Amino acid sequence: MVDATNTRPIEDEVVRDFRTAMSYGQYLNLEQLLGAQQPVSEPEHHDELLFIIQHQAAELWLKLVLHELRTACEHLAGDRLQPALKGLARVKHIQHTLTEQWSVLATLTPTEFVQFRGFLGRSSGFQSYQYRAVEFALGNKNAEMLEVFRHDERAHALLSGLLGRPSIYDEFLRHLSRCGYPIPAPLLTRDVSRAHTYAPELVPVFRQIYESAEENWAAYEACEELVDLEENFQFWRFRHLKTVERTIGFKRGTGGSSGVPFLRDALDLTFFPELYAVRTEITR
After folding, report:
1. pLDDT tens-place string over residues 59-115
2. CA distance 12 to 14
3. What are φ and ψ of residue 38, in 5° steps?
4. Structure letter (DSSP) for residue 252
5. pTM, 2 dp
6. Is there a contact between 199 and 274 (Cβ–Cβ < 8 Å)?
7. Alpha-carbon torsion, ordered 141, 126, 73, 60, to 10 deg
8. Under a CB-based contact definition with an 8 Å cutoff, are residues 221 and 270 in contact?
């Protein structure tokens, strides 16, 4: 029955006194979190808050993606495949959320954005060190990128560390080797500070796994999880590209890039090329 007052009484057991108990706001540090949105436009433009929150929310999700990828790498290094895949499954859900967020920013029209874009100065999403860290963790290493973060000791140290560590793909290939799969030796001893490039000699290994999936189910499942991961990342890149295109057209980026053409070039980057190449070779 609906209460005539249209209110819900607060139960007696609900905690009301937080003089000695930790509150929700304290646990999440909400005062600092909600105070972190500081528009710089003068006079303050209504839509700048959307722009800030969109990017801050993305950075929080990227922090969790990086956390999960690092742990997944550790699991693979210890041949704990199932916990690694559990982490990658979580990353995939986060990727869906990150991709869908672009639809919110897409409500920002060119007329609205141009009114405060000039106040951004040279700041740009290109300078997201967590995004670069995720790329490094997945295998798109680029030592040149470190120069962009020379001014930020913490960001530079993070990227430098990831540059010299095996990517998720490196660790996966090493795991397969320890499981008895004939991974070519040069791939196991390669310079992990460089981006992985297509190795045709690896394709027959994956063909064996795919054509005998039942006998190689763990490896087969892991391969498909990695393909999901890359596909999701490319969806994110594409939505980023189209959102930028509909908001600023073909203007140069605030950070100095060519804008849309630069973002389009990223669509040609790949993390796990052999996992796509093998699809052409599968015959049964």
Report:
1. 999 999 999 999 999 999 999 999 999 999 999 999 999 999 999 999 999 999 999
2. 6
3. -125, 85
4. P
5. 0.95
6. yes
7. 170
8. no
